[in-house]
Amino acid sequence: MNKELDQIEDMPKGGPLGHARQKASFNWKKLKLFIEDLDLHNYKKKIWETLRKDDLFNRPLDDISHSEQKQIAQKRVLKIKDYNFLTDDDMLERPVKRILFDEAIVLWEIDCSIKYSLHYQMFEQLLRTLGTDRHEKFIEQCERGEIFGCFALTEISHGSNTKQVKTTAHYDPNTHEFVINTPSLEDSKVWVGNMGKTATHSAVYAQLFTPDGHCHGLHIFIVPIRDSNTMMLKPGVVCGDMGPKAGLNGVDNGFATFNKVRIPRENMLNKTGDVTPEGTYVSPIKDAKKRFGISLGALSNGRVGLTHYAPCIQSLALTIAIRYGAVREQFGPDNQKEQSILDYQLHQYRLMPLLAVCYVWRVFSLSFFENLSEFLFGLATGDKSDRQADLGKEIHAISCASKPISSWTTQMVIQECREACGGHGYLKAARLSDLRNSNDPLLTFEGDNNVLLQQTSNFLLSNYEEYLKTKKIPNTPLSICSFLNEFDKNINLKFGCQDQKELMSEKTVMEMFNWLICYMTKISYEKLKSNLDKGVDLFTARNENQVFYSKTLATIFMERQLIERFITKINENKDSSLQKVLDNILYLSAYYLLDKHVGIFYQGSYFSSEKPVFMIRELILELCKQMKDEAVGMVDSMAPPDYVLNSVLGSSDGLVYQNLYNAMIQSNGAFEPIKIAKSKL
User: For labelling alongside 245, which of 22, 556, 574, 674 has CA 20 to 30 A away?
Assistant: First the structure.
């Protein structure tokens, strides 16, 4: 272990952060290696050191035009591909390196990471998973850099309701071609990442019509939109950039309309369905709903990736705010030295629970990616077992909750950290405003958060309905509904802790989450059934079941997943020196999340007096106080090098004021007054 620790670069000795670092009860390098091993640490370090030496990846001090941002982002994407950081051997040997590769790039620059993912992971992944041998040519062209892709699903008038997408693909048996058409202006494809300036090909989601006039639902077609050499638009394609956005302007989000654009029959991705040369629709999957689900299944891949983005971006914001808070001194008792703002209870409550939750999200996202890797391997090897099908359903149900809750959490974390740094946090050189603007679109792309959560709650309620019939939930790969097998026991639980020691128990924590999810499942189902029994249609019944019921259910489900998986992780710990901080992370994050549902605990009579709330909140404040001394060590464990963090407030040397002053005087035009000609009147 000592040899491994020696390979991790030390933090600066002494300085403004020296005293805060000495307070930690653990070796920050050990905590780092508990979360990710040395091989993964060195893998990211290699990527960062390569980018650091390349002038193309320098971060400008001042704003540049949106056009320049797009040009630079595209050049960086292609250069990253040339560096070949993620080889096929890497993926086979350690699939988790794919998500660590994403992490390394997103910590450097979110725009570049998203552009890269849209082409090499989303577009290419569609070709690999939903295409067949006849689409190998497109994959080879992607790998050689001859084409650049995007996927076009959203339309002006339809986003979340994908079944109502209006773009059409009519098959012409005379020419063996599909005719891609945009029926009206409101059916234009929009918000298509990479389409605005750089894509040559688009995976277009369109309604498939055969010559008999029958619509077979949404299918995917590879449509060339620009000439790969000249970048001129193809005949019948009207395509361009949507214009400036609040952030993420390195990504060229585009719009497109198709005026009877003809493509070869072979350009249809045909893993789940195909059209014969004569015009007959054939499919190995007879259930149209299942085909539709598979065609959108690639979005689960994207949602799992976005879930991992969350703790990555949170870690940047928290590193900046906590290092700043440890150095910044304001006020204090009369005639005494000012004290660090991190010593104030309110500041601790603002940041410590978020730091704990960030660690929990990181452990979850790495674990969840392992589940996705297993599922993708099954797809690649043609696994058609029931286990594979169940795994896909569970990943879909989790990702429809993990992406919304993680992105909301991240936006809240960034804002809290920005405010915790005062006015200095608003400076561009602090990086917090850029993080906020770049994270903002993650709340709505790959699915609107509130709509996605309904997928999760529907899944849970369907399983509960099955449980009511059979009193047993079948074993599934991830066992995400196994809590229902002990429903009667869980729903009858009551709070029985007498002191904080009893609260600090994994059993107590999981009992509280088990009661909470069972109670919310029960009342959400009863509310839904009550509406149906009144003659209300299913659509309306579900719509009227969201507020206070289904949305809360999906949220609690996700929070339980986070804590359950973190408990599994810390039970792997063999180093006693880490146990205190790991327990602190577990119990602070768990009770911080549970405290948000105090009203439900009283509503369902799990609490019967005021004592539990006082106990839980006193424990939260005590854990915040304890974590304050661990905080700088904890952010050291997850922080990237300073040249990646790129914040004048968050540098590991703690020289906040010197770095801030240097950034101000080096700002372009800092000493140039605005000269306005005086009127001669």
Answer: 674
Higher per-residue pLDDT: 566 or 302 = 566
Beta carbons of 33 and 41 less than 8 angstroms apart: yes
Q: Report the half-sphere exposure of 568 (CA within 13 A, side-chain side).
A: 11
State yes or no: pLDDT of 379 exceeds 90: no
Listed in sequence order, the residues at least 6 apart from 196 whose beta carbon sits closer than 8 Å to its beta carbon are 70, 240, 241, 242, 252, 253, 254, 255
Going by C-alpha positions, the residue among 339, 362, 414, 356 that lies closest to residue 647 is: 414
546, two tokens = 């969201």
pLDDT value, residue 302:
86
Backbone φ and ψ of 231, nearest 5° = 65, 15
Q: Report pLDDT digits (tens) over 275-284.
A: 999 999 998 8
Rounded CA gap, 266 and 103, in Å?
A: 36
The tens digit of pLDDT for each residue in 84-129 reads 999 888 888 899 999 999 999 999 999 999 999 999 988 998 898 8
Residue in the structure block whose two tokens are 């991705």: 269
Q: Could you tell me the CA-to-CA distances from 657 to 17, 352, 601 in Å, in that order? A: 13, 24, 46
What are the start-end ranges of the H helices in 201-244? none
- Respond yes or no: is residue 465 known to be catalytic: no
DSSP code of residue 182: -
**Residue tagged 């005086």 (tokens):** 678
> Which one of 446, 511, 559, 564 is the catalytic residue?
446
Mean pLDDT, residues 330-352 = 93
